[in-house]
Design goal:
Keywords: Isomerase, Repeat. The protein has one domain. It is built from six helices and no strands.
Length: about 130
């Protein structure tokens, strides 16, 4: 409605938020959140924040690192299967026993990837992802 209203302050806030998100990224490309399924979920939230600020796979190394993390940790069944122990250990931990992966984690990640469209980078995700029911 009022695009000029406090435009400088808003731009500064967005710049600071992007800097905080990028500086909070872990060395493996994920973000840590202090709750249950903390690496996949917080990575999804961080990626959505970066996207909202106009960042893309092509112009943001943090998004590139996060994509690599998601590709490397994705299971053969298409999900991620992160254990609640990730929060306690502060280390991305997968579920050891064979269980069905929460559909929400798959949906959040697909949602983000589809929004980003990477200019052709979606193919590796599609190749690894299968949503068939076991």
């Amino acid at each position: 409605m009022y695009p000029e209203f406090k435009a400088n302050e808003i731009d500064d806030c967005i710049t600071n938020a992007v800097q905080f998100i990028e500086e909070s990224q872990t060395s493996n490309g994920s973000w840590f959140g202090a709750w249950g399924i903390c690496f996949i979920y917080s990575t999804w939230l961080a990626l959505n924040g970066l996207e909202a600020a106009g960042k893309t796979y092509k112009n943001c190394p943090a998004i590139s690192r996060a994509t690599k993390f998601l590709l490397q940790t994705q299971r053969k069944d298409g999900g991620w299967g992160e254990s609640f122990l990730s929060c306690l250990q502060k280390l991305h931990t997968i579920i050891i026993q064979k269980v069905r992966v929460k559909q929400a984690l798959v949906q959040w990640t697909i949602d983000w990837h589809l929004k980003m469209l990477f200019g052709g980078r979606l193919k590796p995700i599609e190749e690894k992802l299968s949503l068939h029911q076991p």
